C-alpha cells in the first residue's frame, strides 16, 4: 500500500500517516496508557484480519520502528514523526517523496 501511495504522489509530494504511538519493541510499551488494550485488539482483530486477507499480520502496535522501515522500503526520503501534546495515543508521520 505504501508503495502505491508513493507512486501516486508527485515528485515533491507529502503524505500524512497517523498511527498508534508505540514502539516495535514490547518492553518499550510497558507504560503505554492503553497498551494492554491495544495488544488485545491486535491479536483478536487486526492481526487475524490481516492474515486472512493475505497481509503480514502486523496488527496494532507494530510501532514506529517498523513504520519507519516500511516507509523507507517504499522509497520515501524524509520521515518526520510528530506527536500532539493532548493526544497520547497517536503519532503523525509526515513523509516526503524525494
Which key features would you list for this structure?
98 residues; alpha+beta; 3 helices; 19% strand; globular
Folded structure, characterized:
The chain has 98 residues and is of the alpha+beta class. The chain has one domain (2-96). Helix content is 37%, strand content 19%. The chain is built from three helices and three strands, in the order αβααββ. The protein has helices at 2-8, 35-52, 63-73; strands spanning 14-20, 78-82, 90-96. Strands 1-3-2 form a three-stranded antiparallel beta sheet, covered by helices on one side. A hairpin with a 7-residue loop joins strand 2 (78-82) and strand 3. The model has no long low-confidence stretch (mean pLDDT 92).
Low-pLDDT windows of residues? none
The number of distinct helices, counting runs of at least 4 residues, comes to 3
**Total tally of structural domains:** 1
How are the strands of the largest sheet arranged?
1-3-2
Helical residue percent?
25-40%
The overall average pLDDT, rounded, is: 92
Secondary structural class:
alpha+beta
Oligomer, anyone?
A: single chain
Radius of gyration: 14 Å
Strand content: 15-25%
Biggest pleated sheet: 3 strands, antiparallel
Secondary-structure element pattern, one letter each: HEHHEE
